[in-house]
Design brief:
220 residues, alpha+beta, 5-stranded mixed barrel, two-stranded antiparallel sheet, 6 helices, 7 strands, 18% strand
């Protein structure tokens, strides 16, 4: 049984599932050190103003497909994991069914194209399910630069200089955003639950911060 999944005709789909498992393992390990693979991938992605109702955009097939797949509504890595999972299983089912009926596998280009087509609806369904359990965020276009001066709360790990931890904040619209923070001073550390004020944007969603000592400022 294992040998069939390692056959050349199954190779792309086996690789897809292995990469998916590796990403999940990396995320679990990262959370132990206050890092999030979801956040790090979003840091590298361009900001996309998605249609929150999921309607197909009128400015082209590409934009409509991105909206349909919930791009911008869930972390980018969630979509990657969802697609790899759906693609891997779709490929296995497609090749196994073809081998059972015809006695041979489909050529890899055809099987891969078919698996991509079959994987798109499950990717959307998984993304929609994840979006329902996530706090609604980024329903208004907000630049991450506007986060400087905002109060955030450390929610994962311990933030140290050059070892950021994940924190959350609310923008002017009341939506929740997740960022990576590290102390502005090298000898400081922020434990989980610490309120901090973002002082500078290092890159993407990575910020330096100072401890919030003011009773007038709050993250809520």
């Amino acid at each position: 049984m294992l040998g069939s999944y390692l056959a050349p005709a199954m190779f792309p789909f086996t690789v897809a599932l292995c990469v998916m498992l590796l990403i999940c393992a990396t995320e679990v390990l990262g959370m132990l050190f206050g890092l999030s693979a979801f956040g790090l991938v979003d840091q590298l992605m361009p900001e996309i103003d998605a249609d929150v109702d999921g309607d197909v955009a009128a400015d082209g097939f590409g934009s409509g497909l991105l909206n349909w797949l919930c791009v911008g509504r869930v972390p980018a890595l969630v979509l990657v994991v969802a697609f790899l999972t759906a693609f891997g299983f779709a490929g296995f089912v497609l090749q196994s069914s073809t081998h059972w009926m015809l006695g041979s596998y489909l050529p890899l280009p055809i099987a891969s194209a078919g698996a991509v087509f079959l994987a798109l609806p499950p990717t959307r369904w998984l993304a929609l399910g994840f979006a329902k359990v996530m706090p609604k965020e980024e329903t208004e276009a907000v630049s991450t630069r506007s986060f400087v001066g905002k109060v955030a709360v450390v929610i994962g790990g311990v933030a140290r200089r050059d070892v950021p931890a994940q924190a959350k904040l609310r923008d002017v619209h009341g939506q929740t955003h997740y960022v990576l923070v590290e102390p502005d001073e090298p000898d400081q550390a922020f434990e989980q639950g610490t309120e901090v004020i973002l002082t500078d944007q290092k890159s993407g969603i990575r910020f330096t911060a100072i401890r919030n000592e003011s009773d007038l400022l709050s993250s809520t």
